[in-house]
């Protein structure tokens, strides 16, 4: 199976480097993406929005011959959902890594601090304690050294969705910051940010307790969880 890995904010394809071998050992072909504007700190980010990133992943799907599994971490989950909407007949499964699908019109995060049209990795103090579980000082330093500013409009644009066949695409949610039991409680309670996930016809949950960046804090376990999800 072809597997496309979509990084979250501030990260490029190399952020998956400790996860990829576990997926490949399970017999899959991995395509880790670097999204437009994230090629380097000096890359041009003007004019890049959420649709730009969705279209880049759609192009990667179109370049492959068969069904594709999308894996989206954090903000990359919203991008994966946009691709499932654009190509519902090509996506075999979406795996959300500490992420979930956005509903039409919602943005990924319009509260992150914008500096000159882009979003640098904020100070750690701006994140919740649950985000930073297992992200020790060494990992924080490595993350900050590799972090690339995110194009602001990727975070603030409302997602545009149009094909309800996206709800037919099977989903796996790898729950890290909050346990899956809490997610299902939120869905049952009709918490607004779960309204799109509630419409998906098949959702499987996997608990991987750690912070928001399991590709750094629990890469082996994450790779195993992704490989297991693909085989379902």
UniProtKB/TrEMBL annotation:
Keyword hit for Cell membrane: no
Using the record for this protein, list the coiled-coil segments as residue ranges, or answer none: none
UniProt keyword list: Hydrolase
Could you tell me which InterPro entries the record lists for this protein?
AB_hydrolase_1, AB_hydrolase_fold, Sec-Metab_Biosynth_Hydrolase
One family from Pfam that matches here is: Abhydrolase_6
Q: Where is the AB hydrolase-1 domain?
A: 3-221
Query: A single Gene Ontology molecular function, please?
Result: hydrolase activity
Keyword tRNA-binding (UniProt):
no
Q: Please identify the protein, giving its name as recorded.
A: Alpha/beta fold hydrolase
Annotated source species: Agromyces lapidis
């Amino acid at each position: 199976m072809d597997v496309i890995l979509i990084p979250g904010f501030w990260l490029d394809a190399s952020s998956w480097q400790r996860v990829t071998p576990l997926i490949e050992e399970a017999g899959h072909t991995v395509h880790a993406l670097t999204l437009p504007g994230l090629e380097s700190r000096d890359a041009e980010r003007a004019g890049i929005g959420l649709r730009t990133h969705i279209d880049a992943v759609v192009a990667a799907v179109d370049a492959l011959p068969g069904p594709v599994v999308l894996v989206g971490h954090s903000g990359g989950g919203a991008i994966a959902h946009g691709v499932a909407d654009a190509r519902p007949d090509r996506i075999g499964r979406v795996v959300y890594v500490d992420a979930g699908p956005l509903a039409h019109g919602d943005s990924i995060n319009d509260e992150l601090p914008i500096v000159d049209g882009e979003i640098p990795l904020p100070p750690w103090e701006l994140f919740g304690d649950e985000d930073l579980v297992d992200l020790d000082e060494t990992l924080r330093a490595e993350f900050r050294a590799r972090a690339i500013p995110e194009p602001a409009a990727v975070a603030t644009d409302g997602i545009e969705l149009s094909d309800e066949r996206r709800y037919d695409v099977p989903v796996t949610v790898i729950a890290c910051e909050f346990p899956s039991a809490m997610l299902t409680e939120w869905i049952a309670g009709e918490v607004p940010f779960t309204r799109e996930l509630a419409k998906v016809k098949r959702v499987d949950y996997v608990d991987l307790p750690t912070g928001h960046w399991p590709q750094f804090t629990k890469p082996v376990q994450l790779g195993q969880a992704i490989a297991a999800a693909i085989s379902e």
